[in-house]
Specification:
5 helices; 10% helix; 361 residues; six-stranded antiparallel β-sheet; mainly beta
């Protein structure tokens, strides 16, 4: 960390200052009107006003940073980490940066006090400021490109495939049921639905991007989709060329695992000019359709298309436009519904060295 960034100390190290805590020590000014700016997934700038004299005596700032408790809080923020931060008095605003105590897309509360270090090593402190709240940001393209590079390292060789497929319960495909929001029964279309919160906590597509979710992995020995599925005993299959044509862009969305040796890569297929493509531009790394490590569209000399998928990762493909059921076929699968393998709202293993990067999980 540089001089403008905070260094964290354990609560025990700050106990001396905490002992004098909320005592008004004249003439140290109290921070007022805290301002948070330039928030990223693992950093933020903080500044404030100070009224009265005594500024020349300030040697340090104390920052009290705490995760705001709520029912859907990020469970993967590291435990037993310090939230009392100490910084030398530098020009404001200053940068607070640290992936060991900041997680992406997480709400925090913060307050500050000024301090003067005494000759005996103790601190004289002001009163604490008011408490303000803020929320850290999603992964930027910088962090997503780091994830992308990790995913590329284990993707393995490419295998041919011909169809995208989607499993569900029978009445999702056949009955005019209102129990499935992603289904327009009257028009027999599968409509985009908001992606759940599975995968990396900082992924910008979780809880925001709308799409219809497909797989394309095949069994090594048959070259066909697997007989089993976590998502339902009926399967819709559609030709790969109908979803991944020359007018469709492909983006990298996430890379994660669920405490197993299997790793998942989330890709987004977004037709040019669609709202999904507008969402992905600038947010997600774009992949070359015929030259990437996960999903390729190859055009032959005669103009025909062939398709390849990575062997060593499980691909979750999000198609951002509605899909007509009449464009494919629905059949029962020959295997079982393995619900224990479902990734619905599955949380990423924060300890995996293969798929984690040096920011909040």
């Amino acid at each position: 960390m540089n001089g403008e960034q905070l260094q964290s100390r354990c609560d025990g190290e700050a106990s001396a200052s905490a002992a004098s805590g909320d005592v008004d020590v004249d003439p140290l000014p109290v921070p007022r009107l805290l301002r948070i700016s330039n928030v990223t997934c693992d950093s933020f700038n903080i500044g404030w006003d100070m009224e009265g004299g005594g500024r020349e005596g300030i040697t340090h700032y104390f920052i009290d940073l705490n995760k705001k408790e709520n029912k859907s809080c990020n469970k993967f923020k590291h435990k037993d980490v310090p939230t009392k931060l100490v910084a030398k008095a530098v020009p404001l605003p200053m940068t607070v940066r640290g992936h060991w105590f900041l997680s992406p897309r997480t709400e925090y509360t913060v307050s500050a006090q000024t301090a003067a270090k005494r000759l005996d090593g103790d601190y004289a402190v002001s009163r604490w400021s008011e408490i303000v709240e803020f929320c850290t940001a999603d992964y930027s393209t910088l962090q997503l490109n780091q994830l992308l590079q990790k995913a590329e390292a284990i993707a393995g060789r490419m295998l041919p495939f011909t169809v995208f497929y989607r499993n569900h319960q029978k009445d999702y495909f056949y009955q005019a049921s209102t129990s499935y929001r992603s289904r327009d029964a009257q028009c027999r279309r599968m409509l985009p639905a908001v992606k759940d919160h599975s995968g990396s906590h900082g992924s910008p597509i979780s809880g925001t991007l709308e799409g219809v979710f497909f797989s394309c992995n095949t069994e090594f020995n048959t070259g066909k989709p697997p007989q089993d599925s976590p998502y339902g005993p009926y399967r819709f299959q559609i030709g790969a060329d109908l979803l991944f044509d020359q007018n469709t862009n492909v983006y990298f969305g996430d890379f994660y695992c669920m405490y197993t040796s299997y790793h998942y890569v989330v890709l987004v297929l977004a037709p040019e000019g669609s709202s999904g493509n507008a969402f992905c531009k600038g947010r997600l790394p774009a992949l070359h359709p015929s030259d990437n490590h996960f999903l390729r569209r190859v055009e032959g000399a005669d103009g025909s298309l062939s398709f390849l998928h990575a062997q060593d990762v499980l691909l979750e493909v999000v198609y951002t436009d509605p899909v007509n059921l009449s464009s494919g076929a629905v059949e029962p699968i020959g295997g079982q519904q393995l619900t224990s393998q479902s990734t619905v709202n599955a949380k990423k293993d924060p300890s995996c060295k293969v798929c984690n990067i040096s920011v909040g999980r």
